[in-house]
Recover the amino acids of this structure.
């Protein structure tokens, strides 16, 4: 089917709010090229379970597209319209399975050497959209915190080399009670500025005691879901004809109840399912879990506050053994995890910088139970070094 | 749609075109090499010993190609902060090589299909996740057919099950039996050990599709290969395997044994340890780079010390492609190669040994499909269906 043939009843399989949204804009959707429309529908199909900021973003985008004249809309999408789509892709059920369509489209674009053209077209479209739509600013400047190095004793290498040029490096942070102080800061912000899904605590191990005002995701907390997922994958891969792409499609259809997830918060449950089914390595390495979760929280929920704590991951073993989920005996690699966490902290900062209000945002990374930290923010001079003894809480107060 | 781009990232208008980004990357590499490896900008350090060796070599020319399935970015290798990870490349190999700073892969960035493209000189479009032969003739088929070489003269040592068909295409002009024989070290190990736990760390399959890890085969044929080709008893092999720490170490061990026993004129080794990056653990990716650096140096030492190879062999080392940059929000930095951006498409190549100038750096863009025509010019075969061009700087 091609977009001009869309009718309201084609969306009968959508959730109620999603259906109401797309049917309201069906005239606009009919004019969009097939190389693009499923990507948009991928953001809409589970609209009912999206974070509030995502819902508002897609509403703004649809409203903007709808406000354009026919000629202007054609101009906006002209590069995308030039991407060739195969008849096989046209006949795919892209309305009800837009994510799977996008995956198949990706493979098709690679095979037909159109990926570079598509990438360029996507950049052009996004640039036009960003110019036309004001980005939603956070209610208060964002604060991102990453804690790394849990379980590492003496460590002689320099830490935070990638972040030091961007902020102030502190070498004499008083480590005692540091994590508790950070949690107190994050909790206070959450209580002072209540925003649905606006304040997060991500732990790559077992989450420490925290206030329920924070949205919390932890690697240990998802252990039963991870184990269920890995068992399911093992069983599926043993079936004849099951290849990697079919497996991905299968994983994309998993729901929280399939993994035994049911916190009562369907939005959060579905988010956690996607972390485990779309993130490579999140099922087996806690450091990958922490970094990917942080990336997705930033990208999708655009939090006002986020505290990410890395924990030791298991040592590398044969992939089959890692995927077996056999936790009889697990060796941990704290030093390797510190290295992972340092890069994760850098990526957390980079991804926070991509959000609206970046010029006012602050970011802190701390080597847990050690004296090293880097603070990046409007109150911090770049590339500086401080050997003043300070509490981590004091550093946070200096950052804004 | 969220404010992220269609490819799951926020797209910002970039002031650089992909071509400009690739050139910038090449210039950065050139500067890194100039400052760290002491190479001369702008061309060639002509050391007469290199060319003289080539001119007086009486033995049959040989070529060894090492590809990395799992590229490494400059910031973890050639940039100032990355050079600590590649001490052997920087100090030992690059000064003896001709280095190409801008080698672009314009094809599909999947390891099997990209390596197949390197081997055929054509951007193949076979399914990356299926064990299919390339559609165009490989360098091995051109070499064997044109020069009438036996099957024992062209070998591939490949890391994973999916590469078992890379030695030979299904092209109608060449037919079966005309390509390279493929050794899968993991299959050899499985056959020798019946998959014992002590060796599981060497049996990891690929990281691109970790969930779908096909069962490793290994039976009578592999045991014959061990005995008749590699001249290794099962016990010797097992004993050696216990001292190795990774699948690539196993591959290099097998490659060295092959060089000793069969001395093939074309030996193609694909390494994959770096691709652990897909699992998202940065420390393991760095470990893979450091190990690969050491293994390349080990192979070069073997080439220089084995009588059949010393003085008459050209070694090529090149990744199949790069990895995503930190600057592209559509990716997740080092973890994958999904964005198709300039950093993931632009890699490097070094050539050293017989007929190659030492200490030369070239910035002009070449493509990965230029390798096969270049091998053809060096070894004397015609890569009729290849789409690349010979690299004149090596001829």
């Amino acid at each position: 089917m091609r977009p001009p043939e869309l009718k309201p009843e084609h969306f009968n399989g959508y959730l109620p709010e999603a259906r109401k949204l797309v049917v309201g804009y069906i005239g606009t959707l009919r004019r969009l090229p097939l190389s693009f429309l499923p990507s948009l529908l991928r953001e809409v199909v589970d609209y009912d379970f999206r974070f509030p900021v995502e819902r508002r973003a897609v509403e703004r985008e649809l409203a903007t597209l709808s406000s354009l004249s026919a000629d202007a809309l054609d101009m906006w999408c002209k590069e995308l319209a030039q991407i060739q789509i195969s008849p096989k892709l046209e006949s795919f059920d892209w309305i009800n399975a837009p994510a799977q369509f996008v995956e198949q489209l990706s493979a098709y674009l690679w095979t037909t050497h159109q990926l570079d053209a598509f990438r360029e077209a996507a950049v052009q479209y996004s640039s036009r959209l960003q110019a036309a739509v004001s980005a939603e600013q956070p209610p208060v400047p964002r604060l991102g915190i990453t804690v790394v190095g849990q379980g590492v004793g003496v460590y002689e290498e320099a830490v935070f080399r990638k972040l030091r040029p961007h902020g102030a490096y502190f070498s004499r942070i008083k480590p005692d009670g540091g994590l508790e102080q950070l949690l107190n800061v994050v909790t206070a912000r959450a209580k002072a500025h209540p925003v649905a899904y606006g304040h997060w605590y991500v732990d790559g191990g077992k989450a420490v005691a925290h206030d329920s005002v924070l949205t919390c995701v932890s690697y240990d907390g998802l252990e039963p879901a991870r184990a269920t997922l890995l068992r399911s994958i093992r069983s599926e891969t043993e079936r004849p004809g099951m290849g990697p792409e079919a497996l991905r499609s299968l994983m994309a259809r998993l729901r929280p109840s399939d993994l035994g997830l049911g916190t009562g918060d369907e939005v959060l449950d579905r988010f956690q399912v996607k972390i485990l089914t779309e993130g490579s390595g999140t099922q087996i390495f806690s450091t990958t879990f922490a970094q990917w979760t942080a990336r997705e929280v930033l990208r999708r929920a655009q939090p006002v506050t986020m505290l990410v704590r890395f924990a030791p991951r298991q040592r590398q073993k044969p992939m089959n053994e890692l995927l077996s989920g056999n936790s009889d005996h697990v060796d941990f690699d704290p030093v390797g995890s510190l290295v992972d966490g340092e890069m994760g902290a850098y990526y957390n900062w980079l991804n926070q910088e991509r959000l609206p209000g970046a010029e006012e945002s602050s970011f802190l990374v701390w080597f847990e139970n050690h004296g090293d930290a880097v603070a990046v923010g409007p109150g911090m001079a770049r590339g500086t070094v401080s050997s003043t003894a300070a509490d981590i809480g004091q550093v946070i107060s200096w950052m804004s | 749609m969220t404010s992220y781009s269609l490819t799951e990232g926020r797209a910002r208008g970039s002031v650089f075109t992909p071509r400009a980004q690739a050139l910038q990357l090449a210039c950065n590499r050139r500067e890194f090499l100039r400052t760290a490896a002491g190479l001369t900008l702008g061309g060639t350090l002509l050391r007469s010993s290199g060319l003289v060796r080539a001119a007086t070599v009486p033995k049959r020319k040989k070529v060894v190609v090492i590809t990395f399935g799992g590229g490494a970015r400059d910031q973890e290798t050639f940039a100032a902060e990355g050079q600590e990870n590649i001490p052997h490349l920087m100090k030992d190999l690059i000064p003896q090589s001709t280095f190409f700073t801008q080698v672009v892969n314009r094809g599909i960035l999947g390891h099997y299909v990209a390596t197949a493209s390197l081997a055929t000189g054509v951007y193949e479009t076979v399914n990356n996740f299926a064990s299919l032969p390339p559609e165009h003739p490989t360098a091995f088929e051109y070499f064997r057919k044109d020069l009438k070489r036996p099957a024992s003269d062209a070998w591939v040592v490949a890391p994973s099950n999916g590469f078992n068909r890379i030695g030979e295409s299904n092209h109608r002009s060449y037919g079966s039996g005309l390509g390279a024989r493929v050794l899968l070290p993991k299959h050899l190990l499985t056959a020798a050990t019946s998959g014992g736990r002590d060796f599981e760390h060497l049996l990891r399959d690929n990281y691109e599709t970790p969930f779908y890890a096909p069962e490793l085969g290994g039976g009578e044929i592999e045991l014959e290969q061990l005995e008749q080709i590699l001249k290794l008893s099962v016990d010797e092999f097992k004993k050696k395997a216990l001292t190795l720490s990774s699948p690539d170490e196993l591959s290099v061990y097998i490659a060295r044994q092959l060089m000793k026993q069969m001395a093939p004129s074309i030996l193609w080794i694909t390494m994959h340890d770096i691709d652990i990056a897909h699992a998202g653990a940065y420390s393991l990716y760095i470990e893979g780079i450091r190990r690969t650096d050491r293994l390349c140096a080990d192979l070069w030492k073997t080439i220089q010390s084995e009588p059949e190879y010393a003085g008459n062999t050209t070694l090529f080392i090149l990744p199949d492609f790069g990895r995503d940059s930190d600057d592209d929000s559509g990716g997740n930095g080092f973890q994958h190669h999904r964005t198709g951006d300039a950093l993931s498409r632009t890699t490097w190549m070094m050539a050293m040994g017989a007929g190659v100038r030492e200490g030369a750096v070239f910035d002009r863009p070449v493509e990965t499909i230029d390798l096969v025509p270049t091998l053809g010019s060096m070894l004397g075969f015609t890569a009729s269906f290849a789409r690349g061009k010979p690299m004149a700087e090596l001829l």
Observations:
- Strands of chain B lie at 62-68, 97-104, 154-157, 181-183, 266-271, 313-319, 346-353, 360-362, 366-367.
- Chain B touches chain A through 54 residues (CB under 8 Å).
- Chain B is about 35% helix and 10% strand.
